[in-house]
Design goal:
Blueprint (H helix, E strand, L loop, with lengths): L11 E5 L5 E5 L1 H14 L7 E4 L6 E5 L13 E4 L1 E5 L8 E5 L10 H12 L15
Antiparallel strand pairs: 1-6, 2-4, 2-5, 3-4, 3-7
């Protein structure tokens, strides 16, 4: 894999959003279902997603820098100013990569994430019922 300059070699590193990426967090089961929906909608290639073992099992989606502002994110989605980035291949608990970053630098598609989050968490969450089921 080609080296990605914002990835730490080991452990974690705090990164300011807006430079290499923006980040949004969704807690708990809703975040995991949203991540699963994004994987399904992108044929298994949603872009980099960080999973948290604590903090309610949140997931953090890394999107293009500057792309989260100016949008009405639904309740349950938190825009982050800083994000803790785990290394790929060392002890990183309580963080891990749900989907690892790729050498091509592709991030989560902001508008696809926004619209999928609105379907799952917004004013009409029933639209997404049955769309994603948990893996066995």
């Amino acid at each position: 894999m080609t080296e990605i300059d914002w990835l730490p070699a080991r452990g974690h590193q705090l990164r300011k959003t807006g430079v290499h990426f923006d980040a949004v967090r969704v807690r708990g089961g809703e975040g995991r279902r949203l991540a699963q929906a994004m994987a399904m909608l992108t044929c298994g290639h949603p872009g980099p997603i960080i999973a948290e073992a604590n903090n309610g099992g949140a997931v953090c989606f890394l999107v293009n820098p500057g792309s989260t502002s100016g949008h009405a994110w639904p309740p349950g989605v938190t825009r982050l100013d800083y994000v803790l980035i785990p290394a790929l291949y060392s002890a990183t608990w309580p963080l891990s990569w749900w989907r690892v970053p790729t050498a091509d630098g592709r991030l989560v598609h902001t508008l696809l994430l926004l619209n999928t989050a609105r379907a799952f968490l917004g004013s009409a969450p029933r639209l997404a019922e049955g769309m994603v089921t948990e893996r066995t």
